[in-house]
C-alpha cells in the first residue's frame, strides 16, 4: 500500500501566498467594481536592470558558439560569481568568507526549506513569530513538530516578536538547536542591531546550536550601524549559515538566483558528540540533488556587482524604499500604527486583528 507522509496532513492551510491569492480573487469576483491596491504580497515590479540584461544576453550568445558553450557547470556555482560575491558582499564588509564557502542556487526559498534535511529529526527548532512561513512548514513536513493547536504547532519554540521587543526576539530560556532568524524581517520590517545579533551568536556557541540567518533583504539596509551579514559578528563562522538572494536585491524573482554561505568551521554534531563540518554535508546534498543555476543567469547575477550594476540596483531599491515610505505615511495618516520601512520594503501595520 502506498502510504503518504502524514506530516503533510498537519499543515495548517494552503501555503500562505496562494491563500492570499485565492482570497484576493474571491474578493475581486464578488466586488468587480472595487479598485484593489495589493499591499499583501511580496514581489518585485521593476524589470532587470540594463547591466544584468546585457550580461544575460551576452551569455545566451556564449551558449550558441562552440568555443564558449557551457554544459553542466561546477556544482557549487561558477567561480566568477562566487568570487564576486565573496569580494563584494563579504570582504568589503570585513567578513571572512571565501568563494568556496558559497553555494549558488535557484532560490533562498528552496535553500531555507531544504537545509533542514541535514539536521537530525529530533532537533528542537526555534522560529520568530511572525516570520516567512517556509521555515515552519518545511519542518512540519519533515516531522519535527506535533499538531497544529491553538494557532501554533506543538513542539516548536516560538520566539515572540512584538512591538514590545521591537520585533527582535532575544534568546529564550527554552533551549533550541536550530534558530531561524530573518533580518531585515519579512514581514515586520524590523532589523537587528549588532548587539542583538551578538547575543544570538553567543547563545548558539554556548548551546552547540546553529543559527540560520536569512538576509534576503540586506540590500535595503541604509542605516550604517546595522549589520548586513551575520558574519559581521565574531564567532558566527562557527555557528551560522546565511541565505542571500538576488530576488529582492536585483529583481530576480522570475529569473532565479540565490546563494547560501556555509563557513568551513560551521559545525554540527553526531549522536556520539563528534564534530562534523556542515559544509561537507551540504556540499554532498547540493551536488546530489541540485542541478545548478543556468550559466546565463549566473552571468546576469555577476553583473549586479559591476559598477554599473551596483548603481542600478541601488536606484531600484531606493524606489521600493520610497514606496514603503508612501505606504507608511498614508496608513499613518489614516490612523494606523506602522512599523518598518526604513531599512526594509515591509511595513507592519497594526490592524487590530490577526494577520492570517
Ligand atoms: C523572498 C524571500 C526569500 C527568497 O526568495 P527566493 O526568490 O526563493 O530567493 C527568502 N526569504 C525571505 C524572507 C523572503 O521574503
Secondary-structure blueprint of this entry?
Blueprint: H1 7-10, H2 16-30, H3 50-62, H4 79-90, E1 102-105, H5 108-114, E2 125-129, H6 134-141, E3 148-149, E4 152-153, E5 157-160, E6 178-182, H7 194-206, E7 210-214, H8 236-239, E8 240-245, H9 246-250, E9 258-261, E10 267-269, E11 275-277, H10 278-289, H11 295-302, H12 307-333, E12 338-340, E13 347-349
Parallel strand pairs: 2-5, 2-6, 6-7, 7-8
Antiparallel strand pairs: 1-9, 3-4, 8-9, 10-11, 12-13
This protein binds pyridoxal-5'-phosphate.
Count of the domains:
1
The helix/strand class is alpha/beta
How helix-rich are the residues, as a percent range?
25-40%
Number of helices: 12
- CATH class membership: Alpha Beta
| Ends distance | 37 Å
Q: Overall mean pLDDT score? A: 95
The CATH topology turns out to be Aspartate Aminotransferase, domain 2
Strand content: 5-15%
Gross morphology is globular
* Beta strand count: 13
Strand order of the largest sheet: 1-9-8-7-6-2-5
Name of the CATH architecture: 3-Layer(aba) Sandwich
**Oligomer, anyone?**
single chain
**What hetero molecules are bound to the protein chains?**
pyridoxal-5'-phosphate
Order of helices and strands: HHHHEHEHEEEEHEHEHEEEHHHEE
What would you give as the CATH superfamily? Type I PLP-dependent aspartate aminotransferase-like (Major domain)
Amino acid at each position: 500500500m502506498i502510504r503518504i507522509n502524514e506530516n503533510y496532513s498537519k499543515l495548517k492551510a494552503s501555503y500562505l501566498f496562494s491563500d492570499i491569492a485565492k482570497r484576493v480573487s474571491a474578493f475581486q469576483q464578488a466586488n468587480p467594481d472595487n479598485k484593489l491596491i495589493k499591499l499583501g504580497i511580496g514581489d518585485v515590479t521593476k524589470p532587470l536592470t540594463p547591466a544584468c540584461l546585457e550580461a544575460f544576453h551576452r551569455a545566451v550568445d556564449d551558449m550558441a558558439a562552440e568555443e564558449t558553450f557551457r554544459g553542466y557547470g561546477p556544482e557549487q556555482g561558477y567561480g566568477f560569481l562566487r568570487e564576486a560575491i565573496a569580494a563584494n558582499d563579504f570582504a568589503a564588509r570585513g567578513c571572512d568568507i571565501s568563494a568556496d564557502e558559497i553555494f549558488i542556487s535557484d532560490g533562498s526559498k528552496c535553500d531555507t526549506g531544504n537545509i533542514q534535511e541535514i539536521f537530525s529529526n529530533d532537533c528542537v527548532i526555534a522560529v520568530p513569530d511572525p516570520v516567512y512561513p517556509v521555515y515552519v512548514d518545511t519542518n512540519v513536513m519533515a516531522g519535527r513538530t506535533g499538531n497544529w493547536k491553538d494557532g501554533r504547532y506543538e513542539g516548536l519554540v516560538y520566539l515572540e516578536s512584538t512591538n514590545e521587543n521591537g520585533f527582535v526576539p532575544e534568546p529564550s530560556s527554552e533551549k533550541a538547536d536550530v534558530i531561524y532568524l530573518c533580518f531585515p524581517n519579512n514581514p515586520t520590517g524590523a532589523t537587528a542591531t549588532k548587539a542583538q545579533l551578538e547575543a544570538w551568536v553567543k547563545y548558539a556557541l554556548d548551546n552547540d546550536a546553529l543559527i540560520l540567518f536569512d538576509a534576503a533583504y540586506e540590500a535595503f539596509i541604509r542605516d550604517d550601524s546595522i549589520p548586513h551579514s551575520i558574519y559581521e559578528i565574531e564567532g558566527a563562522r562557527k555557528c551560522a549559515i546565511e541565505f542571500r538572494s538576488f530576488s529582492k536585491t536585483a529583481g530576480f524573482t522570475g529569473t532565479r538566483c540565490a546563494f547560501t554561505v556555509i563557513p568551513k568551521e560551521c559545525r554540527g554534531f553526531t549522536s556520539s558528540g563528534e564534530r562534523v563540518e556542515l559544509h561537507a554535508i551540504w556540499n554532498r546534498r547540493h551536488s546530489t540533488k541540485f542541478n545548478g543555476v543556468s550559466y546565463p543567469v549566473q552571468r546576469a547575477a555577476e553583473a549586479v556587482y559591476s559598477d554599473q550594476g551596483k548603481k542600478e540596483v541601488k536606484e531600484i531599491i531606493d524606489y521600493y524604499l520610497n514606496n514603503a515610505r508612501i505606504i507608511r505615511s498614508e496608513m499613518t495618516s489614516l490612523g494606523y500604527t506602522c512599523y518598518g520601512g526604513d531599512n526594509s520594503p515591509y511595513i507592519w501595520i497594526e490592524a487590530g486583528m490577526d494577520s492570517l
